Amino acid sequence: MIPTPHINVKEKGIIAETILLPGDPLRAKFIADNYLENAVQFNEVRNMLGFTGIYKGKRISVMGTGMGMPSIGIYSYELIHFYGVKNLIRIGSCGSLQENVKIRDIVIGMSSSTDSNFAQQYNLPGTYAPTASWELLKKAVDVAERKGIEVKVGNILSSDVFYGDDPESWKKWAKMGVLAVEMEAAALYMNAARAGANALCILTVSDSLVTHEATSSEERQKSFTQMMEIALELA
Ligand SMILES: O=P(O)(O)O[C@H]1O[C@H](CO)[C@@H](O)[C@H]1O
Ligand SMILES: O=c1cc[nH]c(=O)[nH]1
């Protein structure tokens, strides 16, 4: 079924096998403008900008996903099932839940806890642990080490709410060692697992629920470059 309802690409192969997925489509454009050679835009439906280009001789795509699990659920499903994408690497911003996870630190989600009901569709006889691809995770950690970039790897929280009713609920996740909160990784990991594809989520800490420090929206769009540079090496 191509083009799909949300991606206006008529042929397989136009989208590369490896794709970077920021929530913000303008972050996708920033990556295409600043890192990719011969970048060609493949999607503009709903302004969810997507591009394919070359990075260090390898084809790679980058596309926004929007915010939240329903949104990344749609895009990742279409990319995997209709366009044959194999490696999906979310690059996003997150809120720190731990004192030692500082603003602008990089967090990699080895696994993602969630308050979402996304897993209900699979009718499992228990709870499911959304988990990153080991191959992508290992590669990302190796790249970070080579570049001298410190990363914190562990469990993250994918939440359905940015403005939750209980301002203290994050502390219950924090006491279980969860590093940071964002809103998409768990659905991405589940869609990838169900389809036999590979997924990873690399995050930059944009704000801290512990200290209340925060970065500007411009910084979030343009200057979280270390996570981009790690992700680009995974093609
Ligand atoms: O910066 P992105 O990738 O959008 O990620 C985070 O930022 C958004 C909330 O501001 C949510 O999508 C959350 O997951
Ligand atoms: O989902 C998010 C992203 C950044 N900061 C948060 O507190 N939550």
TrEMBL record:
Phosphate binds at residues 23, 27, 46, 90-93. GO terms for biological process: nucleoside catabolic process; purine nucleoside metabolic process. The record marks 220 as: Important for catalytic activity. Keywords: Glycosyltransferase, Transferase. A purine D-ribonucleoside binds at residues 6, 182-184, 206-207. Residues 19-228 form the Nucleoside phosphorylase domain. One of its GO terms (cellular component) is cytosol. Its EC number is 2.4.2.1. Catalyzes the reversible phosphorolytic breakdown of the N-glycosidic bond in the beta-(deoxy)ribonucleoside molecules, with the formation of the corresponding free purine bases and pentose-1-phosphate. GO terms for molecular function: purine-nucleoside phosphorylase activity; uridine phosphorylase activity. Belongs to the PNP/UDP phosphorylase family. Gene3D superfamilies: Nucleoside phosphorylase domain (3.40.50.1580). It comes from the Bacteria. It catalyses: a purine D-ribonucleoside + phosphate = a purine nucleobase + alpha-D-ribose 1-phosphate; uridine + phosphate = alpha-D-ribose 1-phosphate + uracil; a purine 2'-deoxy-D-ribonucleoside + phosphate = a purine nucleobase + 2-deoxy-alpha-D-ribose 1-phosphate. Homohexamer; trimer of homodimers. This is Purine nucleoside phosphorylase DeoD-type. The keyword Glycosyltransferase applies.
